[in-house]
Amino acid sequence: METKDPWKDKLTAEQYDICRMKGTEPPFTGAYYNFKEKGVYRCLCCGAQLFSSETKFDSGTGWPSFWEPILDNVKTEKDTSYGMLRVEVLCKNCNAHLGHVFEDGPNPTGLRYCINSASLKFEK
């Protein structure tokens, strides 16, 4: 018996590839990598608050980068895909793939949450 994935009806092909299949958008192409407005970045899939514009910074990588998530709304998992060891960032509420976190960010945390624009929805 074949079960249809309900996310395919709710997301564009790019959003589905990134959020549900752990894809990555090309650098410098996402809607929020150079976005400067003040507000909250929510999970595209479930609407959970993920990042504040107050913690966003220009990492020069081509993806929106944040030094801290909001509250405890993201979780991390070990990612060994593509022959690399990385730390994947997921929405704690719906398990949407958001991006990866690295230990080369600014103070005060020293972290860089490198997030796909296609996994986010901005709210002023």
UniProtKB/TrEMBL annotation:
It catalyses: L-methionyl-[protein] + [thioredoxin]-disulfide + H2O = L-methionyl-(R)-S-oxide-[protein] + [thioredoxin]-dithiol. Residues 4-124 form the MsrB domain. GO terms for cellular component: cytoplasm. This is peptide-methionine (R)-S-oxide reductase. It comes from the Archaea. The keyword Metal-binding applies. Belongs to the MsrB Met sulfoxide reductase family. The lineage of its organism: Archaea, Nitrososphaerota, Nitrososphaeria, Nitrosotaleales, Nitrosotaleaceae. Its EC number is 1.8.4.12. InterPro entries: Met_Sox_Rdtase_MsrB (IPR028427), Met_Sox_Rdtase_MsrB_dom (IPR002579), Mss4-like_sf (IPR011057). Its cofactor is Zn(2+). It comes from Nitrosotalea sinensis. Coiled coil: none annotated. The keyword Oxidoreductase applies. GO terms for biological process: protein repair; response to oxidative stress. GO terms for molecular function: metal ion binding; peptide-methionine (R)-S-oxide reductase activity. Keywords: Metal-binding, Oxidoreductase, Zinc.
